[in-house]
Amino acid sequence: xxxxxxxxxxxxxxxxxxxxxxxxxxxxxxxxxxxxxxxxxxxxxxxxxxxxxxxxxxxxxxxxxxxxxxxxxxxxxxxxxxxxxxxxxxxxxxxxxxxxxxxxxxxxxxxxxxxxxxxxxxxxxxxxxxxxxxxxxxxxxxxxxxxxxxxxxxxxxxxxxxxxxxxxxxxxxxxxxxxxxxxxxxxxxxxxxxxxxxxxxxxxxxxxxxxxxxxxxxxxxxxxxxxxxxxxxxxxxxxxxxxxxxxxxxxxxxxxxxxxxxxxxxxxxxxxxxxxxxxxxxxxxxxxxxxxxxxxxxxxxxxxxxxxxxxxxxxx
Length: 316
Prior knowledge:
Blueprint: E1 3-12, E2 17-24, E3 30-38, H1 55-72, E4 77-84, H2 86-90, H3 94-105, E5 109-111, H4 114-125, E6 137-142, E7 147-153, E8 156-163, H5 167-174, H6 184-201, E9 213-216, H7 218-230, E10 241-243, H8 244-255, H9 259-262, H10 276-290, E11 294-297, H11 302-313
Parallel strand pairs: 1-4, 4-5, 6-9, 9-11
Antiparallel strand pairs: 1-2, 2-3, 6-7, 7-8, 10-11
């Protein structure tokens, strides 16, 4: 028996696979009943000229999806949506993976276009009650395969771009040895690629200080978790405002460490340690391009946008 009004989403990202089971709260907002994240990297190889999903990545993805479906089953969601982003849409064998997901789970896998991904992230962000006071703002969401950039005016999406600047992709392209310390040369390469792609994209960043900047996704979540661990607090017990200077200092600290030592950092998932310096350098490149002094962190991203979309298209 299903529970009307309860929806579930599984987001197969390039670097992790996330789930959300949600319903409407008394105010009509999105109430999370269950969330999950599995650090399964299906996007290995995304930085190659002709990306292909590896057999290991596909099998890991299938196992993760089954695990998350089993975890949400007791809540009996009325509707379940499975979506994939940059790694699958860019892979030459992405369609094959889609067929395998259907055969293994009975669920269709929707491969989002870059525009769809960006728009759904925006829909998720505007459902965050902590951001209800904002009218004009930028939104950035960094994943393993892409960087989503959005601009809102009067809470309406005015501009969106999906850029090939994901941390897995850039690590493969710019970091010769991810197991070594993150060299100054690698940092320069990553930031130079980010600057070039941002400029060529035509995405307009408002003058410094004119619009607050929101950052969603695993990189800033992880940075916040590391900073929280340093002062003995939980992630949710810290301020969502993170100064760019704090992110710069965090990159300086982590860049000097080889991968084996980065994996020991409290708050940094071991599976993300190889791409974390690249991810921080990408965030800093965005800050540099927009003259941004601080980012406001939000947990409301793609999954919440998909949940809102499911609820709107199939009201209880």
